């Protein structure tokens, strides 16, 4: 047994970069997918709407922990594909992000008045141009505060990846705690690091909300 | 040949039939004003001319081309038939210039400098050249509606539709919008208006169409129609709006 040292603190901070990697993977792959889902959910085609809705129901009805387990333990069993933890966790976080951001963005799109689509259509704009130039910028403004809010959830959610042995901040905390037998101290530091990472975002989300509400 | 030819058009929302066989000709350069109580189908008819609503029966042709919501060149058609709405429907996140040039830039790929010149040109016609860099929220209702008209004019439409464009305005702002429309009428624009502004209908329109219960009840030149309404429905309508 050894006592908690500066080296332990540095290893916790080092593990934070893997938390960041997970967040970036989730956003990088999840955000485009979220946009696709939001467009499907608001599309005129019933088949597209139903497909997207079914996907959302399925994903949102399962806890993130369940998704992680499924992709890490389930894929080898069901599909015979052995996955490194980063890939399995990355896919689970991507799916999770896509479904929640997709719903947030759908709300933003639907909050733009129907007349805006109509006015844009009456100017002869293509459906894509109507969305890209008229609807999306307004939807984005409205969806930005909840989007940043979700980002906070996402950062905290990555801690579940520790379950499948992926060494990010929470898992690093477990390892340091096991080595030092100082769980209270170690987990308090871990919690403080999460808090420090999320606080700026929370504040940003709040200021956006005030500013955007004031602007309307 | 008429610019707009409406033949026996029917249209229902669910089980409610709002247009029950409407026929109407609109010739080039005519100012046609559609009047009638709310629920008489006048706004619906206007929206059908622009393919915003699908008709169930009959036919509408504009410049000889049948109008359908699934027509292949719908986007070109929409640029030839402008529409101005009651609620202006400007894009709130864009400046006046961008509101006006968005469609020409995307559809006709005009250059940026030409876009600015185009915006200034149409804004001068509605008397708002000095507002080119403003955002819609910085303008009064009357000014917003004039920008909406300018945005339409920038597409160089052959026909313009006006759907109760002064109904959402404070009374003191109605005049400036009507004046712009009078100027356009004088310059020969073919216009179809749904309006409650009887003064405008009387003084500017070349034809009045009175709609009642989804039908064209009476039509004719304003002087004739207002002086000698043939049906009791039009008589009571004129009495009620006076």
From TrEMBL, chain B:
It is a peripheral membrane protein. It is found in: Cell membrane. One of its GO terms (cellular component) is plasma membrane. One of its GO terms (molecular function) is ATP hydrolysis activity. Residues 4-238 form the ABC transporter domain. The keyword Glycoprotein does not apply. CDD domains: ABC_HisP_GlnQ (cd03262). Keywords: Amino-acid transport, ATP-binding, Cell membrane, Membrane, Nucleotide-binding, Transport. InterPro entries: AAA+_ATPase (IPR003593), ABC_ATPase_HisP-typ (IPR030679), ABC_transporter-like_ATP-bd (IPR003439), ABC_transporter-like_CS (IPR017871), MetN_ABC_transporter-like (IPR050086), P-loop_NTPase (IPR027417). Pfam families: ABC_tran. The keyword Nucleotide-binding applies. Belongs to the ABC transporter superfamily. This is Amino acid ABC transporter ATP-binding protein. The lineage of its organism: Bacteria, Pseudomonadati, Pseudomonadota, Alphaproteobacteria, Rhodospirillales.
């Amino acid at each position: 047994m050894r006592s908690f040292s500066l080296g332990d603190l540095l290893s916790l901070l080092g593990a934070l970069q893997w938390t960041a990697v997970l967040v970036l993977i989730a956003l990088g792959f999840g955000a485009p997918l979220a946009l696709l889902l939001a467009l499907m959910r608001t599309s005129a085609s019933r088949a597209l709407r139903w497909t997207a809705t079914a996907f959302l129901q399925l994903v949102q009805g399962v806890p993130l922990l369940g998704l992680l387990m499924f992709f890490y333990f389930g894929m080898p069993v069901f599909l015979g594909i052995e996955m490194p933890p980063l890939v399995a966790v990355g896919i689970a976080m991507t799916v999770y992000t896509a479904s929640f951001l997709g719903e947030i963005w759908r709300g933003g799109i639907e909050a733009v008045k129907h007349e805006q689509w109509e006015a844009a259509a009456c100017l002869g704009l293509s459906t894509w141009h109507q969305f890209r130039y008229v609807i999306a910028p307004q939807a984005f403004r409205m969806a930005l505060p909840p989007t940043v809010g979700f980002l906070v959830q996402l950062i905290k959610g990555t801690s579940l990846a520790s379950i499948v042995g992926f060494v990010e901040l929470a898992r690093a905390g477990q390892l340091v705690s096991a080595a030092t037998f100082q769980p209270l101290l170690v987990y308090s530091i871990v919690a403080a690091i999460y808090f420090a990472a999320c606080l700026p975002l929370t504040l940003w989300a709040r200021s956006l909300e005030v500013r955007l509400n004031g602007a309307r | 040949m008429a610019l707009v030819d409406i033949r026996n058009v029917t249209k229902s929302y669910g089980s409610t039939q709002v247009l029950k066989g409407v026929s109407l000709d609109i010739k080039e350069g005519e100012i046609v004003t559609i009047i009638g109580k709310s629920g008489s189908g006048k706004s619906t008819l206007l929206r059908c001319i622009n393919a915003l609503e699908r008709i169930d029966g009959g036919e509408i042709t504009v410049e000889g081309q049948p109008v359908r919501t699934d027509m292949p060149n719908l986007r070109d058609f929409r640029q030839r038939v402008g529409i101005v709405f009651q609620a202006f429907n400007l894009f709130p996140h864009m400046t006046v210039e961008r509101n006006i040039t968005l469609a020409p830039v995307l559809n006709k790929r005009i250059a940026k400098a030409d876009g600015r010149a185009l915006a200034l040109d149409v804004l001068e016609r509605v008397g708002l050249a000095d507002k080119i860099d403003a955002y819609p929220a910085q303008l009064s209702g009357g000014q917003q509606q004039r920008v909406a008209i300018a945005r339409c004019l920038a597409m160089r439409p052959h026909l313009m539709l006006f759907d109760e464009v002064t109904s959402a305005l404070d009374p003191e702002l109605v005049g400036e919008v009507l004046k712009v429309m009078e100027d356009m009428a004088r310059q020969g624009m073919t216009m179809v208006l749904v309006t409650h502004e009887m003064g405008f209908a009387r003084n500017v329109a070349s034809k009045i169409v009175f709609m009642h219960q989804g039908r064209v009840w009476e039509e004719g030149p304003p002087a004739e129609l207002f002086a000698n309404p043939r049906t009791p429905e039009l008589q009571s309508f004129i009495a009620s709006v006076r």
